[in-house]
């Protein structure tokens, strides 16, 4: 930086860094702020304190209580965004509105929760603003010497982590993987500004013409979430409880070879060395002992096991093991999740 | 009516190993594969081709060896295949990838739909599909498992967490496809042999896209600073609780896991 430039900054004629503040895009589910959004807010708070800047939350909602809650969770400012056409969620409207706002108000960092919608909106906004985006981050920190956001993400199934940054463009945009930051505490005494801003997103070409609930039925081999029942469930009735539980969580039901032979379930959902192989993201095993026959066919990212005998081999490989009666626990879970 | 389907050649994360000292990927001896989720995109495009008598063009960007992956799409039934490949494209930058693909799509000429897989299994960015839509300035239809065409419009079902939206859009539009719609077809040995013997994969370098190295540099917006391994040993957390408390904890633990995508 030359002397003249420094002087200009000193005299207030030149603002060197015009991009300021950390923005957080907040998602709502049935009117409530989602946990992944609050986690992003907590992370933004930490980063803002390092940068000496402010956290501003943006939410597409007209409810004031939501905005007040966002202040208590760490926002210095909350913008309630009103856009047109109002009403149902539309990806295009949200992305165009946020693009326009970011163009006008120039945040330094713009963070989103890494959800299906959050990652898509972030991608559209980043492309429109011609700036860098790093998705699915598990950590965000600041390189204070260069004032850049360091964004860490796992690649190749977590075999390697990469730290990426956006050297020149602003805002630096990232999506944060749910569960990778702590949900902040609610501070009843925190105060902040709340304002409503209206944005005209321009021409919207897509139109939401209908809504429906979907039950995605997938083959066991392709399922992301599998509830796996074994002989520990004891009876056909208990296996049906597992089915009902699976329905509530959108999971696919599988059975061990032993359970099928006991007559608890049908042949076609057998998972094992002599059955189907699965590689779900989440596998919840109820009453599965974990013999070699069983485990050789399962490659789950997260394996949870519920069984009575602490000595069962499944507890050696599970991430979380619960010692208890599997059918009783399944039944309680059905009751509680309805 | 034309459909462009974008695919990626990837190394299987299950096969890749990491060199512990250099923190680099060991890919020697491994083959590039067609990204599994892109197979669903190819299948969706082929289904539309059969119904609407249109042509499907496969497009990819990557090293020369990615040609094999495009041959596989030809064997599946794609009409033409193009590979953007240039020595100067080295860095990993999804923004640049999306930009170059959008340039290539413009060069291909008139199209009605651009179809992409939801994400690639190596970097899992979920970024290129949406950004192609943005660079082409066409609507994005995201996480689609159902496509209907007619009257110059497209209607799709977008699936988000157990809820689905039916969305209507004018053409042209970009679509990202999720697993769960149509099952990707296996090419017959005869088609595989035809794809290798009789069909061509056209290769485009930077010049063919009308781009200079400077422009390439200007469209590279992110940089990798370092790579590291985060060793996570699998350790079982055992919980001995009353059924009542255990079920509560299991539900909240499950809900947390389900929020990840």
Going by CATH, what is the homologous superfamily of chain B? Answer: HUPs
| Shape, per Cα inertia axes of chain A | elongated
**Shape of chain B, please?**
globular
Mean pLDDT of chain B: 92
Could you tell me the strand content of chain B as a percent range?
25-35%
Flag low-confidence runs of chain A: none
C-alpha Rg of chain B, in Å? 21 Å
Describe the overall structure.
The complex is a heterodimer of chains A (338) and B (261). Chain A is α/β, with parallel strands linked by helices and 338 residues long. Chain A has 2 domains: 17-199, HUPs (Rossmann fold); 220-336, Rossmann fold, CATH 3.40.50. Helix content of chain A is 30%, strand content 28%. In chain A, the strands form 4 sheets. Chain A has a 7-stranded parallel β-sheet, sandwiched between helices. Chain A has a 5-stranded parallel β-sheet with strand order 15-14-16-17-18. A 3-stranded antiparallel β-sheet of chain A has the order 8-9-10. In chain A, helix 4 (91-105) crosses helix 5 and helix 6 runs parallel beside helix 10. Chain B has 261 residues and is α/β, with parallel strands linked by helices. Chain B has a single domain, classed as 3-Layer(aba) Sandwich (Rossmann fold), CATH 3.40.50. Chain B contains 7 helices and 15 strands. In chain B, strand 6, helix 2 and strand 7 form a beta-alpha-beta unit. In chain B, helix 2 crosses helix 5 and helix 3 packs across helix 4 (128-136). The longest helix of chain B has 17 residues, at 36-52. Chains A and B meet through helix 4, helix 5, strand 7, strand 9 and strand 10 of A and helix 3, helix 4, strand 9, strand 10 and strand 11 of B. Strand 13 (207-213) of chain A pairs antiparallel with strand 11 of chain B, so a sheet runs across the interface.
Helices and strands in order, then pairings?
The complex is a heterodimer of chains A (338) and B (261).
Chain A: H1 3-10, E1 22-26, E2 28-29, E3 32-33, H2 35-51, E4 55-59, H3 64-72, E5 77-83, H4 91-105, E6 109-113, H5 116-128, E7 133-137, E8 139-143, E9 148-155, E10 160-165, E11 172-176, E12 193-199, E13 207-213, E14 225-229, H6 236-249, E15 252-255, H7 257-261, E16 282-286, H8 292-295, E17 302-307, H9 314-317, E18 320-323, H10 326-336
Parallel strand pairs in A: 1-4, 1-6, 4-5, 5-12, 6-11, 7-11, 14-15, 14-16, 16-17, 17-18
Antiparallel strand pairs in A: 2-3, 8-9, 9-10
Chain B: E1 2-7, E2 9-10, E3 17-19, E4 24-26, E5 33-34, H1 36-52, E6 55-61, H2 67-76, E7 80-84, H3 94-108, E8 113-117, H4 128-136, E9 140-150, E10 153-160, E11 163-170, E12 173-177, H5 189-197, E13 201-204, H6 213-218, E14 223-228, E15 237-240, H7 243-259
Parallel strand pairs in B: 1-6, 1-8, 6-7, 7-13, 8-12, 9-12
Antiparallel strand pairs in B: 2-5, 3-4, 9-10, 10-11
Helix pairs in contact in B: 2-5, 3-4
